Amino acid sequence: MSNSRLLEGVRAFSPLLQAYEAGYTKEDIRDSINEALIGEFENHSMLERYGLDLLTVESVNVTKVKMNNWSKSVYDKTLDMRRNVLAKDETKCAEIVAQWEQSIGKALSLYWSAAKFEYHKSELPLDDYAYELLRNIGAVIEGTLQVYLKELFHLVSSFNGAEVSYSQVASMSLGQVVNQLSSNLEDDNIFTLPPWMVPLNQWRNIAQHFSVNTDDNHIVCKYGSRNQHEIILTREELFAVAQAVFLLFSAVRTSQTIFVLDNADSLSSHCKGFKRKEDDESFQFCVGAASQGFEVTELEITTDKAFAKLCDVTDDLSLQRALHASQFVYQLWVLSKSDKVILKYVLKSNDKTLVTKANSEDCEKVFNGEQPFSYLSEVVEYIVEELSVAEIKA
């Protein structure tokens, strides 16, 4: 994946940079997040534990999901069911969540990889457009959403007293999971996309088997192995189907994320964390910088050297902002473990810079607990004058 795709993705998937550019302060953003999420957390003190980079994304997701009655119902019912399982048997709930932790982590990595490579399809001919959009729909359902639904079904089964294993649930068909979850949530159509009323698993089948024909203006989709059904869509209607699938995914994923964040203390004894891919960690580094009002516009990592350029999107001209940005040199080392780490901070006006250079040996002392974080301010090299990129990277 090219770095340009990754860096552009921060603006696409996180509203932090736009908020700072609009003049909001870090405190304003935190207050807005707390207002949006306080009603979603049963343990309100947990909100203070998480950074702006994480909570901003989730506050936007919650707001978006709750704007639609159908997706709000999915979100509320799946979140309530998780809480019921936890209340009945905390240990069993934590064990099941932990069993699915790695699968969900991998599914999310697949989702973000696909999202970062996404492009506008509006200019494609109808047959290519149908193929590409159905490919996206099938990938989201099969590769990501299905995993969340199976984890939820495993929890629901435990709540109902059934003894099922991870492998048994993992081997179930999507249709089985959708049907049984719908029954347990007392809503036969909860995973049926309105207004077409075609079940989620059938949209997956249409996409996976590409059961589609096109004429000049319409996309004809067929589904059903015995009694075959047909649905005729325009280009705009197929796009609406894709939006509905992504909204359903967002509702299910967000309910799981809020549940885990809210109950981290109860779940942590069993959940061990998921090791992100390098691209995911780079993306998180960029989002972390954005949470403080810095946009990463360049990022290059090799074994010998890591370089990042952070541009301030605020109008703050204080030295404190530059020093705050310089602290990301350590996070860049944590990401890269490179021998030399170089971070260039640039004012919004683009007329002043602060370059911070650090060595792996010094960062490692902080990482291992041999030295406090303040130690870095004593050993890093600061360069205030403007230099060319070639000179800075030397």
Give a short synopsis of this structure.
The protein has 394 residues and is of the alpha+beta class. Helix content is 58%, strand content 13%.
Can you walk me through this structure?
This protein is α+β, with helices and mostly antiparallel strands and 394 residues long. The longest helix is centred in the middle third of the chain and has 34 residues, at 126-159. It is built from 19 helices and ten strands. Strands 6-7-8-9-10 form a five-stranded mixed β-sheet. Helix 4 packs across helix 12, helix 7 runs antiparallel to helix 8 and helix 14 packs antiparallel against helix 16 (328-336).
Tell me, rounded to a whole number, the average pLDDT. 86
Question: How big a fraction of the residues is strand?
Answer: 5-15%
End-to-end Cα distance: 25 Å
Oligomer: single chain
Q: Mind telling me the C-alpha Rg?
A: 24 Å
The total strand number stands at 10
Which H/E pattern describes the elements?
Answer: HHHHHHHHHHEEHEEEHHHEEHHEEHHEH
Note poorly predicted spans: 274-278, 387-394
Largest beta-sheet details: 5 strands, mixed
